[in-house]
Amino acid sequence: MEKLVDAYERKIDYLRMSVTDRCNLRCVYCMPPEGIDLADSQNILRYEELLRIARIAIGHGVSKIRITGGEPLVRKGILEFLKSLSEIPGLNDLSLTTNGVLLKQYAQNLKDAGLKRVNVSLDSLKRDRFQKMTRGDNLQDVLDGLEEALKVGLTPVKINMVVIKGFNDDEVIEFAMMSKVKPYHVRFIEYMPFNTQEGWQRDKCISAKELRELISKVEPLEPVIDSSGSAGPAKRYKFKDAPGEVGFISPISEHFCGSCNRLRLTSDGKLRTCLFSDNEIDLRTALRDGSGDEVIEHILFKAVAEKPSGHRINENVFKKCSRTMSLIGG
Length: 330
Ligand code: SAM
Ligand code: SF4
Known about the structure:
Number of helices: 10
CATH class: Alpha Beta
Bound molecules: S-adenosylmethionine, iron/sulfur cluster
CATH superfamily: Aldolase class I
Radius of gyration: 19 Å
CATH architecture: Alpha-Beta Barrel
Number of domains: 1
């Protein structure tokens, strides 16, 4: 079967599927306090539609799928969906990104459903700051969820921290040190420009290089050499003898567009070929008008052909994305 390869010879083997635009938190960098205008539930792709897309994409070389949202664990039937997804031959890596609020109660069932690993978003270890950041009082739930994920073997358990200057950058060392105590992969992510009420300012974004230097001053970091051949965008390090790792993801200061292997599907059935581009290709219509698989295939190939060479955040022409991360599926 023909593989999905874009105009720049990048092999597209990673699909991120958003299963909902709903969320049980309201992070300041992602949503306004009252939430966002949710799509009519009719417009959200049904599980069987998502499975059909996954099957077709896997048939054309996709081997990794990440489930995201909104908050994927709030969608009813998520476990049954993951089980069906995990059983599709050719899918080697099934993961999920969650805010962790419901993770403690779901972890074992997620593992049983065939999920390999989780990424948990956590931006502060201080209860009042967590509350300010997420507009929810769930820090302990997230910490319990992380423990449970380790316990049931959803590993590596990655902790994603979005670092915002003047807001949570004073906690970077404490987060890095979590990798010395438990086998967490703590990853620092640059704050990115989306359409949020709070607004994005370049000077609130701390570069991965600055963070790496800051941590290395406290304790040296050794690079982790990835021999699997499936290295992601994170630059990986560890402290000597630590069970976990520290990683840096720098979409802004040192972008990794040249090796981007991703395609995104929004919960309302649009393909996005770049996180930062508003170019969307509609799949939902074809899924619902009786079209055959060859039409879905054609749309997937068309989207891949339109994938831009890279984002333009660092150019003057760049406009913030009109959708927030919760709508795109981060
Ligand atoms: N609700 C889940 C969660 O929070 O993990 C999954 C969806 S959320 C949109 C996915 C990721 O996007 C989270 O790690 C979140 O921190 C990140 N995110 C949202 N807005 C962001 C921004 N402006 N800059 C950087 N990361 C952002
Ligand atoms: Fe919800 Fe995740 Fe967005 Fe926070 S980042 S509001 S948890 S979708």
